[in-house]
């Protein structure tokens, strides 16, 4: 049976470390790191995510600045709040909770967030920094995947890694990070021929598809590490990943469960990104003095 990679426990440990680092930062800078959170509309799932993120901030000593706009907010109103957060020296990271109501255009809004405050790492400037290996904001979920692999003692250098999914928020940045770790990376997607054959060669599988239990246990190479990013709710209310957990854990050396795997790491990495943003901000202030 595979070793279970406990994301809940690792995230707890990470939050504890962060609390110490945040308190050190606050003492030196004279103010805490700050995260600006903007929620547009009343989507209940988004409201829960935002509340969780704000509570997590509070617990480690990061100040959160909550902004709520109604369902019928205009593009200009959202822009105004982003501009306000961009200009606020107490805000070091900005989070625009997605998805936005359908009448709003997310892309120009994400572009409007200053790259140096883009705590989610979605701005093309930060995507470029990641591609060329410069320090930057990196999307939180892929950061969580790499952290879990490292904490499970998985050797990434020289490993065959297969990432299933090529989204800008998970698949592509996860592939970039694995590449930076020295893995040989294949990215699969809906047009990939013979997905099972690709997965079957992988020492590391990262599944970010959004199709419940699509990746079969018999595809997995004996002794592989499996990171399941998928969060899918079944009709009977159960939450499952993109990997068939039962059969995959008979072959893998280690595997993340759903829930309790990658999910808790995403929030912990958002906190870490906000602190790193605040540290970079203080450093750049010192350089310009
Ligand atoms: P997207 O829908 O943006 O991307 C899904 C990717 O999977 C696409 O690249 C798509 O290919 C590919 N895909 C779809 N069907 C298949 C298939 N049959 N075979 C191979 N590839 C396929 O999803 P996200 O990346 O945003 O999210 C993926 C999953 O991760 C979801 O379940 C989501 O809920 C979860 N998630 C979890 C987070 C966490 O904190 N744990 C955070 C973010 C997401 P193509 O590009 O060709 O269409």
Task: Give a written overview of the molecule.
With 289 residues, the chain is an alpha/beta fold. The protein has two domains: 31-114, 3-Layer(aba) Sandwich (Rossmann fold); 140-264, NAD(P)-binding Rossmann-like Domain (Rossmann fold, 3-Layer(aba) Sandwich). The chain is 45% helix and 15% strand. It contains ten helices and eleven strands. It has helices at 7-29, 44-60, 75-87, 106-112, 124-132, 140-151, 171-180, 195-200, 245-249, 262-288, and strands spanning 3-4, 34-40, 63-69, 93-96, 160-164, 184-188, 204-207, 225-228, 232-233, 239-240, 254-255. Helix 1 (7-29) packs parallel to helix 10 (262-288), helix 2 (44-60) packs across helix 10 and helix 6 crosses helix 7 (171-180). The relative contact order is 0.16. The structure holds NADPH dihydro-nicotinamide-adenine-dinucleotide phosphate. NADPH dihydro-nicotinamide-adenine-dinucleotide phosphate (NDP) is lined by residues 141, 164-167, 169-171, 188-192, 195, 208-211, 229-232, 262-263, 266. Residues 141, 164-167, 169-171, 188-192, 195, 208-211, 229-232, 262-263, 266 line the site of NADPH dihydro-nicotinamide-adenine-dinucleotide phosphate (NDP).
What string, H for helix and E for strand, traces the elements in order?
A: EHEHEHEHHHEHEHEEEEHEH
Which topology of the largest domain does CATH recognise? Rossmann fold
Helix content: 40-55%
State the fourth-level CATH superfamily of the largest domain. Answer: NAD(P)-binding Rossmann-like Domain
Poorly predicted runs of 5 or more residues: none
- Quickly give the CATH architecture of the largest domain: 3-Layer(aba) Sandwich
The N- and C-terminal alpha carbons lie at a distance of 57 Å
Order the strands across the largest sheet as they lie in space. Answer: 1-11-8-7-5-6
Number of domains: 2
Sheet-strand content, in percent, reads 15-25%
**Helix- and strand-based class?**
alpha/beta
């Amino acid at each position: 049976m595979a070793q279970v990679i406990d994301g809940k426990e690792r995230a707890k440990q990470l939050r504890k470390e962060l609390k110490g680092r945040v308190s050190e930062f606050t003492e030196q800078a004279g103010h805490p790191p700050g995260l600006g959170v903007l929620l547009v509309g009343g989507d209940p799932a988004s409201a829960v995510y935002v509340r969780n993120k704000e509570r997590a901030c509070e617990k480690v000593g990061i100040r959160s600045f909550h902004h709520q706009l109604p369902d019928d907010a205009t593009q200009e109103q959202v822009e105004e709040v982003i501009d306000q957060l961009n200009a606020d020296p107490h805000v070091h990271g900005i989070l625009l909770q997605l998805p936005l109501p359908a009448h709003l255009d997310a892309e120009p809004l994400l572009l409007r967030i200053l790259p140096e405050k883009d705590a989610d790492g979605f701005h093309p400037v930060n995507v470029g920094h990641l591609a060329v290996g410069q320090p930057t904001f990196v999307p939180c979920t892929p950061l969580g995947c790499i952290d879990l692999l490292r904490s499970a003692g998985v050797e990434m250098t020289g490993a065959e890694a297969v990432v299933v999914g090529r989204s800008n928020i998970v698949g592509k940045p996860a592939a970039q990070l694995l590449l930076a770790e020295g893995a040989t990376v294949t990215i699969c997607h809906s047009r990939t021929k013979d997905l099972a054959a690709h997965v079957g060669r992988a020492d590391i599988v990262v599944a970010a598809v959004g199709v419940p239990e699509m990746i079969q246990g018999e595809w997995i190479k004996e002794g592989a590490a499996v990171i399941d990013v998928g969060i899918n709710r079944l009709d009977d209310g159960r939450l499952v990943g993109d990997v068939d957990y039962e059969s995959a854990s008979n072959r893998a050396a280690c595997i993340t469960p759903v829930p309790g795997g990658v999910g808790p790491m995403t929030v912990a990495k958002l906190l870490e990104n906000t602190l790193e943003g605040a540290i970079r901000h203080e450093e750049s202030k010192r350089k310009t003095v």
